[in-house]
Specification:
By secondary structure, the protein is an alpha/beta fold. The chain contains 12 helices and 8 strands. It is about 45% helix and about 10% strand.
Length: about 350
């Protein structure tokens, strides 16, 4: 164990997972929606999104690339620590990864989740799945600590700033000055946002903080304050349950109706170009913009930007130092403080009732 990362002897990348062959699509969606009573025909309808891309989600390949980049970054910094990867909903499953970690002698690991914000689906559900996986492995499963939410870490925000500037530069001069910046994240039920964070409302508040930070940096770089709005994509679930709005497509229609000529769509809710980005934004939202005559450019996600990759190392070292009782400088951007290391009791509650969840007080 390297002294700078003690007490951790491994880093675990925790992600959502996705199908890699057409025959994987419906079983994957069954995993995602298990317990929600969604008919198979509805799953097959949703699966058409994947079939447009050969029945293969891009997320696993992106995680492989990110995993390799993290290993290279840690190695170049002289930190000889193994990095593992496990998914909630598809191979490699968390239980299989934890079993391998136990066989390799890993006793305590820090977990980097590929979700930057607080919510049940973006944090507690991962912690519940980690608890389920650890219980399945049983005695010998490593202790797991989730690294803090990194929505306002400069390693995540700075690549988004540069991506926004690059996207603005793609517009013609006549369109660019009047363009709107459309910040997009995954919609969730209003009740889930209300329960997010220790005091509620953290999901929206964290996104607004990031949008404001990017807007201010763009203003500093360009000398122009671009109008910007936070909107949502990928709504699912029963129609009678209220979700965060407006939908990105509805917002584009509203902008076009007000005479706006162009937009830059910035997917601040996503760390890489997975299905919600390549289908909901690059396919659906782009088609909406074309129908409306709106010039449309989508900014890149953080992906494997070296600053985002280095952020994983920074978060690991930060948490390790805190666990050793040392003073820690926590890098942040924007109006909100660094997020908590240990999820407070009741944070991002499961609406269906309490379940065991690792990396928190309950």
């Amino acid at each position: 164990m390297h002294p700078d990362v003690a007490p951790y002897d491994a880093l675990l990348l925790v992600s959502f997972g996705g199908p890699e062959r057409p025959e994987d699509v419906v079983p994957f969606l069954e995993n995602v929606t298990r317990g929600r009573g969604i008919p198979r025909e509805r799953l097959e309808e949703v699966g058409e999104h994947y079939f447009l891309f050969g029945g293969r989600s891009p997320i696993n390949d992106q995680n492989r690339e990110f995993l390799a980049a993290m290993r290279e970054d840690l190695g170049s910094a002289g930190l000889d620590i193994p990095v593992y990867w496990g998914n909630r909903n598809w191979d490699p499953y968390l239980s299989d990864t934890l079993r391998q970690m136990a066989e390799d002698g890993v006793r305590r690991a820090a977990c980097l989740v590929t979700s930057a914000y607080s919510s049940y689906s973006g944090c507690r559900q991962y912690r519940e799945n980690l608890a389920d996986a650890a219980a399945e492995v049983g005695e010998g499963a490593p202790r797991l600590d989730r690294l803090r939410h990194y929505f306002n870490h400069p390693g995540f925000v700075e690549p988004m700033v540069d991506a926004t500037l690059a996207a603005l530069a793609e517009h013609d001069d006549a369109v660019r000055h009047e363009a709107h910046i459309v910040f997009v994240t995954h919609s969730i039920p209003l009740s889930m946002n209300d329960a997010s964070g220790p005091d509620g409302g953290a999901y929206v508040a964290q996104h607004l903080s990031v949008a404001d930070a990017i807007s201010e940096r763009v203003r500093q770089e360009t000398g122009h304050r671009y109008p910007g709005e936070l909107v949502y994509c990928s709504r699912s679930g029963a129609p009678h349950i209220p979700w965060l709005e407006p939908d990105v497509n509805d917002h584009l229609e509203d902008l076009a109706g007000r005479g706006v000529r162009g937009v830059v769509v910035v997917p601040i809710g996503f760390v890489s170009d997975h299905m919600e980005v390549v289908y909901d934004l690059d396919t659906e939202a782009r088609a909406t913009a074309e129908k409306l005559g709106l010039a449309f450019v989508r900014a890149a996600t953080a992906g494997v930007d070296p600053r985002f990759v280095a952020m994983a190392r920074d978060l690991l070292l930060e948490r390790a130092a805190a666990e050793r009782g040392e003073d820690v400088a926590r890098a942040t951007v924007g109006s909100l403080e660094a997020s908590w290391d240990v999820c407070p009791r009741g944070c991002c509650a499961n609406a269906r009732g309490p379940r065991p969840a690792l990396c928190g007080e309950d």
